[in-house]
Amino acid sequence: MVEGMPRGIAPRLHERLRDVLRSPSRRRAALLRRTAAGVLVVLALILALAPAEGDATGAVLVAARDLASGAALTEADVAVATWPVELIPAGVLRGPADAGGRILAGAARAGEPLTDVRLAGPAPPGRTGDPRVAAVPVRLADADVAGLLVPGSRVDVITPGPAADRPVVLAADAAVVTVVAAESDALGQARGRLVLVTLPRADAARVAAAALADQVTVTLR
Fold first, then answer.
1. Are 74 and 106 in contact (CB under 8 A)?
2. Dihedral Cα 114, 115, 118, 124, nearest 10 deg
3. Distance between CA 96 and CA 80 in Å, rounded?
4. For the residues of the chain, what is the DSSP string, one character each?
5. Is the Cβ–Cβ distance between 94 and 81 less than 8 Å?
């Protein structure tokens, strides 16, 4: 700046630097420290707000919509989301092919990750169009027995039969699809828990008919 010329209201950067360099050493050092501190603060804010290039993410299979317990999953029921690796649960499924046709052991909300422990084995053949197999609901009066069952359990379906000491095996090695929570009838009385099992179609017809007239229970294999 020319000597004697009035300063601008907002001096330019090079004019500020010149003034700093011409100022007494103590004042100049203080100004340089403050300037360096300001620059460091700005850099720290930039680094804190900028996304790290090395942040790792992974594919996570989630429920595409609210799903009921016992549902046989299709591609329309699931979606692939991208999550930070530190938030991905153990055993999570990665793609639709991992869940296709498998049975959901419990209800799931839309967006909930699907892990291996939430699914029961391959889908029962009766749920995928196999004409030799059917799914049959069996109501168990004993809640303790129903409490021992989980999707994927293998059971024999039996009824007392004509002689109390000679139970009749209606179906052997049936697969449990799901266990429905206990409910009450129209009079408010508790009803037995409903268990959905898959078994050969011929056995399914026999089990369904027996369940209408007799008590039916299961034994675990």
1. no
2. 90
3. 8
4. --TTSPPPSS--HHHHHHHHHHS-HHHHHHHHHHHHHHHHHHHHHHHHHSPPTT--EEEEEEESS-B-TT-B--GGGEEEEEEEGGGPPTTB--SGGGTTTPEESS-B-TT-B-BGGGEESSPPGGGTT-TTEEEEEEEES-HHHHHT--TT-EEEEEE--SSTTS-EEEEEEEEEEEEPPPEE-TTS-EEPEEEEEEEEHHHHHHHHHHHHHS--EEEE-
5. no
Query: Contact, 93 vs 115, CB < 8 A?
Result: yes
The pTM (predicted TM-score) of the whole model is: 0.46
pLDDT by residue (tens digit) across 133-169? 777 888 886 778 888 888 778 889 888 777 667 788 8
For the chain, the distance separating the N- and C-terminal CA atoms, rounded to the nearest angstrom, is 97
Alpha-carbon gap, residue 116 to 131, rounded angstroms: 28
Question: What residues are paired with 197 via a beta bridge?
Answer: 136, 176
- Nearest residue to 62 via CA among 77, 41, 42: 77
31-51: string of b/e by CB count within 10 Å (b at 16+)? beeeeeeeeeeeeeeeeeeee
Contact 180, 194 (CB under 8 A): yes
Residues shown for the chain: 221
